[in-house]
Amino acid sequence: GENVEQHPSTLSVQEGDSAVIKCTYSDSASNYFPWYKQELGKRPQLIIDIRSNVGEKKDQRIAVTLNKTAKHFSLHITETQPEDSAVYFCAAHQTGKLIFGQGTTLQVKP
Amino acid sequence: GAVVSQHPSRVICKSGTSVKIECRSLDFQATTMFWYRQFPKQSLMLMATSNEGSKATYEQGVEKDKFLINHASLTLSTLTVTSAHPEDSSFYICSMTSAGGVGHEQFFGPGTRLTVL
Q: Could you read off the pLDDT of B39-86 as tens digits, one per residue?
């Protein structure tokens, strides 16, 4: 089955800097890759997603890149703000279900 | 649109009792429903997948007789934790895909914090 690895587990940046979180997946048949932001005790919130027929997608300060050959995808957050502090999860869709990465705790210092 | 509710938000129960958690889609019909469990500082772990009218498909290591899933309709799924024990204490989250949705996006409920004493 699918296996998703996410790095780093924690990331601390200064406000205004960029943050990058990387994920790798194992099943080349995976075709949908969402990213979620989760605040403590809350539901995961979809922030951006990408499908396997696209290499890059951007939404304001957030972008995701996908390298199907290498089977990895990355989340890029530019101009980080303190309210970006949360846990971020990547996921890969395989045979009708999402497999999640281990999560990255992002801390943005004012 | 695509709102999912989950009740209760928090529940505390005694060891050995059963707890039922409801997950409802409020403004769409769900094709598939998912139940996840999330321990503190860990990722979401899929427990089971269900479609209306058919039995749930459980992930490896999840006891189907302990975690009873009933996909009652296109808008309602329930998870019953039977004979709960302290190790079942966790954050339980449901999600659904929409019959009218695009691709594989899942809509998550707000979660249920279960504490077993």
A: 999 999 999 999 877 889 999 999 999 999 998 888 999 999 999 999
Alpha carbon distances (Å) from B12 to A5, A40, A84, B38, B84 = 33, 19, 32, 17, 11
Q: Which residues of A touch B (CB under 8 A)?
A: 31-32, 34, 41-46, 49, 51, 89, 93, 96-103
Q: Do A41 and B46 touch (CB under 8 A)?
A: no
* Residue B8 preceded by cis peptide, ω within 30: yes
Judged against a pLDDT cut of 90, whether residue B104 lies above it is answered with no
- CA B104 to each of CA A82, B30, B110: distance values in angstroms, whole numbers, following the listed order: 30, 12, 19
Closest CA to A3 of A85, A108, A98: A98
Q: What was the pLDDT predicted at B116? A: 97
Question: B69, B11, B96: which is closest to A98 by C-alpha?
Answer: B96
Chain A residues touching B46 at Cβ < 8 A: 97-99
Of A42, A89, A97, the CB nearest to B43: A89
Q: What is the pLDDT of residues A59-70, one digit of tens each?
A: 999 999 999 999
φ and ψ at residue A84, rounded to 5 degrees? -80, -10
pLDDT tens per residue, range A40-64: 999 999 999 999 888 999 999 999 9
